[in-house]
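Record type: monomer structure entry
Structure origin: computed from sequence
Chain ID: A
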Amino acid sequence: MAAPFLTLRDVHLTFGGAPLLDGAELMVHEGERICLVGRNGSGKSTLLKVAADILQSDGGERVVQSGVTIRYLPQEPDLTGFQTTLAYVEAGLGPSDDPHRARRLLEDLGLHGDEDPKTLSGGETRRAALARVLAPEPDVLLLDEPTNHLDLPAIEWLEAELKAMTSALVLISHDRRFLENLSRSTIWLDRGRTRRMERGFKDFEAWRDDLLEQEEKERHKLDRKIAMELDWLRYGVTARRKRNQRRLADLGALRERRRTERRSQGEVKMALSEAEQSGKLVIEAIGVAKAYDRPIIADFSMRIARGDRIGVVGANGAGKSTLLGLLTGRLQPDSGRVKIGANVEMVTLDQKREALDPTTTLRETLTGGRGDHVSVGGEMRHVIGYMKDFLFAPEQANTPVSVLSGGERGRLMLARALAQRANLMVLDEPTNDLDLETLDLLEEMLGDHPGTVIVVSHDRDFLDRVCSSVVMSEGEGRWVEYAGGYSDMVAQRGAGVAARRVEKADAAPKAEKTVRVAEEPAKKRRLSFKEKHALETLPGKIETLQKELGQLHAMLADPDLYARDPARFDKVSKAVDERQTALAAAEDEWLALEMLREELEA
């Protein structure tokens, strides 16, 4: 195999307390597509900074092959000192790089190149930074959360652009679908060390769980060995003899190993504080319209029933937050009306975390500044215990909100929102900055929530897992509801959220922007892996059920069975009913999938 473009060996780094990196390694060969995963705070961004030679490690080795070019996208790009976005992007070009590509990328990302960096939003800053690192087409791209602040059109565009490039990639992202579509190898950073799997992110969680299970078995063996040695030490008659001092030393070594062993970080514990059940009709919108300098929502009608899970998607500036404001009564429509049903208790999660006061402490934020207890679903809990449920250490209780990371702020917003009694949850970008494990638990919690959920998100996997229907912006103020999650919406429309170019309008409010639609060609729907597997296995399942039914009917054909063994007669009759129900369901599923396959092939 050819020499790697970039190598990190035995990297150590400590900022105080436990080492952040404790022998971490990274090797990047030509054209590799690597995703770097781990819990929030595990050191992923730090390792990427070491790879980019922005941060010096305490120990270890960094080797870059001669002539290899590397570009690094930070989480928070800094455009200070540049007059325009084009000047910022061109500053990242090498002598032989094409300046026309820099302008083309800016335009593809919805920028003109003459924007003043001081006036850019978070999403526009991210787009300019992406253009800067992509324009030179480097040998190695190090991307730290490239989808942050991007809307779905930009995320889909970025995926296509990265797939077309020959650069080796190292990606950090909390967007599952993004990682699944781009990665071919996975590096897991856990307790300061890295472990590598030569498969993409799709297989990561099963692989990680197997490793953790094996680790738990090894820990159990160690505990048993220590217990056996302690028993020998206490009761063995030869324990004090000189020749057994080595065994005593070995016991001390086992104890030290157990004491210093770094265990995996715990899991977030979430529980919703449920309010009384709302009425069957939660929200009804009839002919609602809202405009600023252009139509944002035009003649929109919708009924949201108890238990619905509604996803709202569209490009930045399409009016998602405006639609959310109208449905919840926070904004008044220009025409039409919105009716909120009986007994609705609502809790909202703000997209920009503006509801958090940066001067207050974590304890004050959760308790409202009143004592050391927080009310969770009407029950009082000590704030330290509740903090631990969301992976905050006890010593962080008096930490100001201003010094928390983005992921920690996201967990704090969730902790405060979930403590409130609610039967309607309105979540505006709840997945921002959350790690994958926390996202898993949030998805599970929302799935079990007996109330109603309305969520705005650019995370396609999250929408697929949570939503029962998706409301999509079709442009010019028109919004359409599609049954199912994001993938179902794509199947029905024939395309995802098409790439859109955003142009500023002088009179438009800051939160809303004019959108010019430039539709992408429709992507052909294909059978998923699950659907293909079902098509292949269902005929065998149907044949097995038919054979079992034949055997059961033969038993019932015995005229003396009931008189001889009534209990067996009842058991066989029940089994017949179960097999017939299962057979009908399997045949219906196979027929539906076969019709779908024929339709797609046609």
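Annotation 1: The longest strand covers residues 281-291.
Annotation 2: The chain has four domains: 6-204, 207-260, 273-345+423-517, 529-601.
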